[in-house]
Specification:
Elements: E1 12-17, E2 20-25, E3 34-38, E4 43-45, E5 51-60, E6 66-76, E7 83-88, E8 92-102, E9 108-113, E10 132-142, E11 146-154, E12 161-163, E13 168-173
Antiparallel strand pairs: 1-2, 3-13, 4-12, 5-11, 6-10, 6-12, 6-13, 7-11, 8-9, 8-10
């Protein structure tokens, strides 16, 4: 069966009210409280220096409360090469994020961070050149407007780590 709700304009969401489903305007004048991004091409780093993953980012406004999740598909060139994942963003009164990075089909590293550009590289991966999913989730309250962006580096200088096209992110504006 298929339900039809007519034309719900942009800036509205569906809400149950009693026995009816209605379209209600999103608070903030119709601006969506959810944004999403998807990487359209691979990004490569062969250095141990963190680099932005261009395309996995959102612009943030000062004074708002944001939650975010990034689904980062990566691969490394060798089983002895790990990946360093982190986040960067504007000055914030609260910055907290978690990174879960698999190292095999049954193991992962988990990192709880309270500052931008922090974390630790994994020491290895079980299979070279195999797509692997890392998850980053966090919350921040920026005191300045600026860019929220995923960052990455190789654990071994000269050995490639790759963030794959299709990696995606979701930003929630809780203000």
């Amino acid at each position: 069966h298929r339900l039809s709700f007519g034309n719900i304009p942009d800036g509205y969401f569906l809400k149950r009210q009693g026995n009816e489903i209605i379209g209600e305007q999103v608070s903030g004048g119709g601006t969506s409280f959810i944004q999403k991004v998807r990487l359209t091409e691979d990004r490569v780093n062969t250095t141990t220096t963190l680099q932005d993953v261009t395309g996995l980012s959102f612009n943030l406004e000062a004074g708002k409360v944001y939650g975010y999740m990034f689904f980062v598909v990566f691969q490394t060139a060798a089983t002895t090469t790990g990946i360093f994942l982190s986040m960067n963003g504007p000055s914030s009164s609260i910055t907290v994020f978690n990174i879960r990075t698999p190292t095999s089909a049954t193991a992962f590293t988990f990192s709880n961070r309270r500052a931008w550009n922090t974390g630790a590289a994994t020491a290895s991966i079980d299979t070279a050149n195999a797509p692997t999913l890392a998850m980053i989730e966090g919350l921040c309250i920026p005191t300045a407007s600026g860019l929220l962006v995923v960052r990455f580096a190789s654990e071994v200088a000269g050995s490639e780590v790759r963030i794959k096209a299709g990696s995606s992110g979701v930003l929630y504006d809780f203000s």
